[in-house]
Amino acid sequence: MSAPAAGTAIRTKSPHPSKFERAIVVGASSGMGAELAKQLAAEGAHVALVGRRESELEAVAATIRAAGGRAIVAKHDVTAYEDVPRVYEALTKEMGGLDLLVYCSGAQYNPDESVYDFAQDREMIEVNVIGAIAWTQLAAAHFEAQRGGTIVGISSIAGERGRRTMPGYTTSKAAMSTWMEALRNRIARYGVNVVTIKPGFVDTAKTAHLAKKPMVISPAKAAELILKAAHRGGSPSVFVPGQWQLVALIIRHIPSFLFRKLNL
Ligand SMILES: NC(=O)c1ccc[n+]([C@@H]2O[C@H](COP(=O)([O-])OP(=O)(O)OC[C@H]3O[C@@H](n4cnc5c(N)ncnc54)[C@H](OP(=O)(O)O)[C@@H]3O)[C@@H](O)[C@H]2O)c1
Q1: What is the rounded CA–CA span in Å between residue 25 and residue 88?
Q2: CB of 53 sitting under 6 A from ligand 1
Q3: pTM (2 decimals)?
Q4: The CATH fold of domain 22-259
Q5: What is the position in ligand 1's atom list of the atom closest to the CA of 127?
Q6: Where are the chain's structural domains?
Q7: β-strands 237-240, 46-51: how paired?
Q8: Residue 148 contacts residue 160 (beta carbons within 8 Å)
Q9: How is 80-124 classified by DSSP, letter by letter?
């Protein structure tokens, strides 16, 4: 092995060992998804922004382009499952391939006690679970074939237990976390990095109605922590921020007869 030339910097550890050249962010019109798209573009990635609200997507894309980044936009409702392959292929083709898929789309309703709303529960399952399966499955097949790539799914700490205040949402996030784990167990062996993100409280439209938001962080901070986990590799499942891991550990061990008495 030849010695490096005098004055050559030796980089022992890059802050971003896996650089993302091309990324799709599903649910990029606001909140964490918009921040993820902006931060990915700032790192040099060509980013595709997906969601229903085209004007919000275009506004995020304009911010990215004004800062010298590259962004394209696709108006898409994730519950239009039959459209997913066409949108995925069009965006991937336009960017010349794909290294990262982030599934950030999410629906959340917190019904009052004694309210049972099938339409809301159905929407949460359709967006948070079936949409996630439709999008991540395509990326999984693609990344398995190319022997590399990263899939990030934004789940939630809410999926750790079935909560009386949000039955549909906690069910959907538990299912999403299980799906991500199964995907990881299936394709990590092919060099694909499958990352599950379980945020606590993040200051977005989803939590605007809440009076108390312990340990709340900004969407920008959440995006920074999510990308750090995605770059690290090793298919992690991480709480964002990390302090929620201890909370989750405690919550998981509360016996059922006690948990049902808590107003969670
Ligand atoms: N905020 C928190 O405290 C928190 C905590 C844990 C987990 N999360 C999760 O984090 C993710 C992002 O949420 P956020 O807090 O950043 O809130 P947000 O600003 O409301 O973002 C939600 C995103 O989901 C997209 N979306 C919703 N329904 C969709 C549909 N049918 N088709 C396509 N996209 C759809 C929205 O885009 P369009 O409306 O433009 O379609 C939007 O971009 C969600 O999965 C949420 O469950 C949030």
Answers
A1: 11
A2: yes
A3: 0.94
A4: Rossmann fold (3.40.50)
A5: 31
A6: 22-259
A7: unpaired
A8: no
A9: -GGGHHHHHHHHHHHHTS-SEEEE-------PPTT---HHHHHHH
